[in-house]
Design brief:
39% strand, alpha+beta, Pnp Oxidase, Chain A, oxidoreductase, globular
Length: 192
Amino acid sequence: MATYVDAATVALRFASTAVDASGAPESRQAEPVTPRSLRDAMGCLATGVCVITTLADGNDVAMTANSVTSVSLEPPLILVCIAKTARFREAIIESGRWGVSILDASSHELSTELARAGRDRAGQLERVLFERGRETGVALISSSVAHLECVTTAVHTAGDHDIVIGAVKSLAQAGAGKHPLLFHRGRYRWLL
């Protein structure tokens, strides 16, 4: 015979069962907010991994990002956060058009390569299969779970990053059998 419980009971049961490895109630200590502690705390939030692409002087340039999110469904807007110190920042701001390729679970090496600081700007995607976006002409990674083409509508400075907001001009998604690459606590992960 099935037992039925309401959502409040389930929530209370889950909230009251946080324990550490020994079975003791889990405790959390407040700690000073530093760049490292903030990075570690935000690393607890699993995110998707994307490659952002644009054109600079006719060359494809790209960077790995996980600070990408939707902003609005109507009108369709998304954002990406880019460090002010990133070389990619100048390219995306000057171009005003960019692509987002949401990486699939097999793309961790590509993500790592495009996250590496100081790499050559020339030929960044020469070993990557991509297609050109019809709306923007930017490179879109062919193996991605989904990709979007955007045109910049606003750039906002926030601390040591710029928030680049883009109007989504086109998008495409892979079939349901493709799984995204995830990043959690400083490591790549994937769905089973």
